[in-house]
Design a protein that fits this description.
2 domains; 6 helices
Amino acid sequence: MNSYLKPPLSLDEQLALLAERGLLIDDDARARHYLANISYFRLSAYTRPFYIPDQDEHHFIDGTRFEQVLARKRLYFLLVIIESLLTRVSPDSAWSSRLVTLLAKYPHISLAHMGMPRNWQQDPFWQ
């Protein structure tokens, strides 16, 4: 069995890591809010297009701002927030499974353009 060796980072440590890698963060409170609600892991899928290409280390292209990452494809972020709120307000809500079913009915709609990560519907979050 593989063990995960990286220790978890606090929100402030996550912000510091993003800044160390070159991401410009104008509003720490806003960035902390998004990290707390979306998670560093989910956000990282949206930061990849802003990395300097062909490098082993993940460093951002000069001038990349946190707001650019958020603005890239916001629908998925909003869906994550809605699902998180609904789970708290109505734990028995079937909204997430209805969303998965609805989007599956329309395969011609580009989920990538909505900001949906590949195989998003298989993430336990949406189960």
